[in-house]
Amino acid sequence: MPTYSAPDGTRLAYHVHGEAHEDHAPLICIPGGPTDSRYLADLGGLSAHRQLIVLDTRGTGRSAVPEDPSSYRCDRLVDDVEALREHLGLRRPALLGHSGGANIAAQYAARHPGNLGKLALIGPGTRAVGIPVPGAMRRELATARRDEPWFPSAFAALEAITEGTGTDREAIDPFFYGRWDAAARHHAAASRPDNMDAVTGFAAEGAFDADATRAGLARCEAPVLLLTGEFDLNSPPRAVAEYAALFRDASLVVQPGAGHYPWLDDAERFVAATAAFLA
Question: What CATH number is given for 3-134+195-278 in this structure?
Fold first, then answer.
């Protein structure tokens, strides 16, 4: 397992999927969670088009637990990504962030625009840029799936969470997948956070400065892909469309029939869209 040293000395690990290409630099991938990056796997076969360098953020997967818990903060994780770029000797690599990892990627783009070739935000979290996702927006997406057999119990759990009277997040897992089948159940179980200190610290006070990030993104000239699923409760298409408007050169893709993990719901469609953007 390859590793490198973060600026504070924490040993961080990353996974390599696919072969190196002479004509294309590797794609650095930042998982959400924060959780073990193995849930990304090879992003539905994207590694056949571009070598993937998938980071285990500090305190997750094979990466070490930092001595300073405040270093779990989202804005501070940007330094770990820059250290990885330097470790790999890449000048302007492409960067992909999924879910919460998109908050790290967006802050990286705002702070290091000259070190970025292209940016892909998949099912992106929007906290870094201050775009709210109100409960009514999530509820509207959820009710579009009312004919699913799992809907009554999952929707009741979602309503309770939205109203602040419930905490059973596992009960709403079906909403995050285009198909709630055995593969989705296995993926959901494997995607649970493995370090709650990292989860809590990620959004600690000071982690997000939306005004500064928006200003930095307005200056970023790198092409950007924002791809979300038609049914993604975490990253509803309307919120992601608002996000896309913050960039100079952005493409918005809403993948039909997909949830929060579009490479699982339709790998062929996801890979085609993402590989075309990266080419």
Answer: 3.40.50.1820
